[in-house]
Amino acid sequence: MILTVTMNPSVDIAYQLEGLKLDTVNRVSETYKTPGGKGLNVARVLTQLGDRVIASGLLGGKIGEFIERELDKVAIEHSFYKISGETRNCVAILHGGQQTEILEQGPTVSEIEWQGFLKHFEDLLPTLDIVTISGSLPKGIASDFYARMVSLCNNHQIPVVLDCSGVALVNALKADTKPTVIKPNTEELSQILGEEVTGDIKVLKEALSRDIFSGIEWVIVSLGAKGAFAKHFDKYYKVNIPRISVVNPVGSGDSTVAGITSALLKKESDADLLKKANVLGMLNAQEKQTGHVNLSNFDTLFNEIEVIEV
């Protein structure tokens, strides 16, 4: 069983426009409302792959109830911890091939609530094979919260795929116990190291050899349309991907996390893990709906991806 954790979920609202005009009325041609937040996108894609998954995190208010009802409709099992604050909305405006996002901050979580979630989380661990932790922390939660969750997973010998950024990620990297996988992009690597990290292979190899990444089994760096760069123990890989037509890139990173998690669970080879992860990210980008993939195109893209040890 896979557990996906979303501490700051949302209802993701996507507005499709021909063009965005400021300081006037914009009429929406299409609207999509889905349970959102990075971990819920991961859960949707894992469900489409046929993997057993349960979604968890924090939910509150009427928006939280809407999320649970929508997950029930698509048969995604869930076990959230309820808080007093209202879960947020996040809006993506898709216009002329561009994307403008308006993200609500979300509720402030009390210490009693986040401590309560940690107990709830630990109670779930004995039934799990792997955990994904995705996205930002809402206000009020300690910045080492993800490090605490990783420590609990390690106590139960459960691998963790951690997809976050900023102080929460740095604290997890500096903790005594490490996540199994992290998935930064070059901008996030630059923030972690305090210096510019480009997509150059030599630069990336040097960056990932730093002490702060020691003890982490997989570091998978997203390079956007240029594919990915990865470190698995002492091996380095460059992933080259085919060019595709992008419809909606929102959730592509989360779909990549789903691929990583599914491949880890099934003990797939390094090359197959990296191909699966990137295929799912691309398939998501080709769909209007966030966290959705058309698996009929999976094999074609899988065979077009090149994984090179460097």
What helical percentage do the residues reach? Answer: 25-40%
Report the portion of residues in β strands: 15-25%
Spatial shape: globular
Task: List the quaternary state of the chains.
Answer: single chain
Tell me the structural class.
alpha/beta
Total E-strand runs: 15
Low-confidence stretches: none
Sheet having the most strands = 11 strands, mixed
H/E element order: EEEHEHEEEEHEHEHEHHEEEHHHE
End-to-end span in angstroms?
34 Å
Describe this structure in words.
The chain is an alpha/beta fold and 310 residues long. It is 36% helix and 25% strand. It contains 10 helices and 15 strands. Strands 1, 4, 5, 6, 9, 10, 11, 12, 13, 14 and 15 form an 11-stranded mixed sheet that branches. Helix 1 (38-49) crosses helix 8, helix 4 (145-155) packs across helix 5 and helix 9 (270-285) packs across helix 10 (298-304). It is globular and about 50 Å long. The model has no long low-confidence stretch (mean pLDDT 95).
Short description:
The protein is α/β, with parallel strands linked by helices.
Helix and strand arrangement:
Layout: E1 2-6, E2 10-17, E3 30-36, H1 38-49, E4 53-59, H2 61-73, E5 77-78, E6 81-82, E7 88-95, E8 98-103, H3 111-124, E9 130-134, H4 145-155, E10 160-163, H5 166-174, E11 181-182, H6 186-193, H7 201-208, E12 218-222, E13 228-232, E14 235-240, H8 252-265, H9 270-285, H10 298-304, E15 306-309
Helix pairs in contact: 1-8, 4-5, 8-9, 9-10
Any descriptors?
globular; 4-stranded mixed sheet; alpha/beta
